[in-house]
Design goal:
Layout lengths: L1 H18 L3 H8 L7 E2 L9 E6 L5 E5 L3 E5 L7 E2 L9 E6 L6 E5 L5 E5 L6 E2 L12 E7 L8 E5 L7 E4 L7 E3 L10 E5 L2 E5 L5 E4 L7 E4 L20 E4 L5 E5 L2 E8 L2 E9 L4 E6 L5 E5 L9 E3 L7 E2 L9 E8 L2 E7 L6 E5 L1
Antiparallel strand pairs: 1-28, 2-3, 3-4, 4-5, 6-7, 7-8, 8-9, 10-11, 11-12, 12-13, 14-15, 15-16, 16-17, 18-19, 19-20, 20-21, 22-23, 23-24, 24-25, 26-27, 27-28
């Protein structure tokens, strides 16, 4: 009888260990490529969701093209509008400033402006330096937010002639004009790699700055034969996302897929990690090192493609979403991965998580 009791205790201990997991193991399971995505409930009136972001406490904020800004504190079970002080309800991009937890918003118009909220309810316009001009929407990806410890914020425009870029070292309290004037004036995506800032555009290539975003220099433009040799002039066009690989290299989403740099600034060599059938929309690298890529809508294309081996091989990762849509933005929060999915024809947006 005693032996049977001891055996039962051993079995119970084994089951307990097998069922328990560390936070890292839980994150790996939730973010495992190929795992099913689940759709969040969105406000019924928000039929044109364009962007979203998440605070460290889990509060989610979305922008909508006709109803402005929405907030949920319970993962989509209930939503409230937060539009006080906005001149328009054409919500474009929204981001959480990791340093202050303020919200940074772009409202589309002509001209377009950026706004800040300190209380998650009311908005005030971020001051603009002389020479700043946005005649179209802000950057597709919003702007560069400072790290949690503070730093530079960069805010610019999307594919408009004469548009300029501004930067701030005090979270938007004051701003200065950044010397970044490519042919279309676009500042589609911003990122930082150590002390080197990067800017990508729609048709102007990739620029870097080593002086805190005061000035930028062109380092890769296939159409202008600047930098690494290209198979197509489109290889350096439509840089909607710029990230890093954790080892000091840039990773870009462009019109022809995913590209990674090697070498040092400004003498980069570019290698294509993934060749896309449609123009790229986003590339993202999670805390486990998995890459996620989304491209423009096509019936034959995966909505999300991912790589767990540094970009050497890729697989479809849109179970629960389906193929033929567009992934626009990924956010990792509290052990989960969230993604903004859009119908490229109707512009209707959805948020999924796993």
């Amino acid at each position: 009888m005693k032996q049977m009791t001891q055996f039962a205790l051993v079995i119970a201990l084994f089951v307990q260990l097998a069922c328990s997991s560390s936070p890292d193991a839980a994150t790996k399971q939730q973010n495992a490529p190929g795992g099913p995505w689940q759709k969040l409930s969105l406000p019924a009136a928000a039929t044109g969701v364009d962007n979203f972001d998440i605070e460290p406490n889990g509060d989610i904020f979305v922008t909508d093209r006709t109803t402005g800004v929405w907030k949920t504190t319970n993962n989509g079970q209930a939503w409230q509008q937060i539009n006080t002080g906005l001149p328009s309800l054409f919500g474009w991009t929204i981001q959480v400033n990791p340093h202050t937890l303020d919200l940074i918003l772009n409202i589309a118009g002509n001209p377009t402006h950026f706004y800040v909220s300190h209380d998650e309810n009311s908005w005030s316009q971020i001051p603009e330096p002389s020479g700043f001009s946005l005649t179209a929407k802000g950057a597709f990806s919003g702007g560069l937010m400072p790290p949690a410890g503070g730093g530079v914020m960069i805010l610019g425009g999307q594919g408009c002639t004469g548009c300029t870029t501004m930067y701030s070292s005090d979270d938007g309290a004051t701003t200065a004009l950044s010397t970044f004037s490519p042919p279309q004036g676009d500042a589609e995506s911003d990122s930082v790699n150590g002390s080197v800032f990067g800017q990508g555009g729609e048709a102007s290539g990739f620029y870097t700055s080593t002086d805190g975003a005061h000035t930028f220099n062109l380092v890769w433009n296939c159409g202008a034969a600047v930098g690494s040799t290209c198979a197509s002039v489109n290889d350096s066009n439509e840089i909607y996302a710029a990230i890093t690989d954790g080892s000091g290299n840039w990773v870009l989403s462009t019109m022809t897929g995913v590209w990674r740099s090697s070498g040092t600034n400004p003498h980069y060599t570019w290698t294509q990690l993934y060749k896309a059938n449609q123009r790229g929309r986003v590339v993202f690298r999670d805390s486990l090192g998995t890459y996620y890529f989304g491209q423009a809508q096509s019936t034959n294309n995966p909505t999300i493609t991912c790589s767990t081996d540094g970009g050497n091989t890729w697989q479809e990762c849109d179970t629960g979403i389906g193929a033929g849509l567009e992934a626009h933005k990924f956010v990792e929060s509290n052990g989960h991965l969230y993604v903004l999915i859009q119908n490229g024809t109707s512009n209707q947006g959805f948020i999924y998580m796993r």
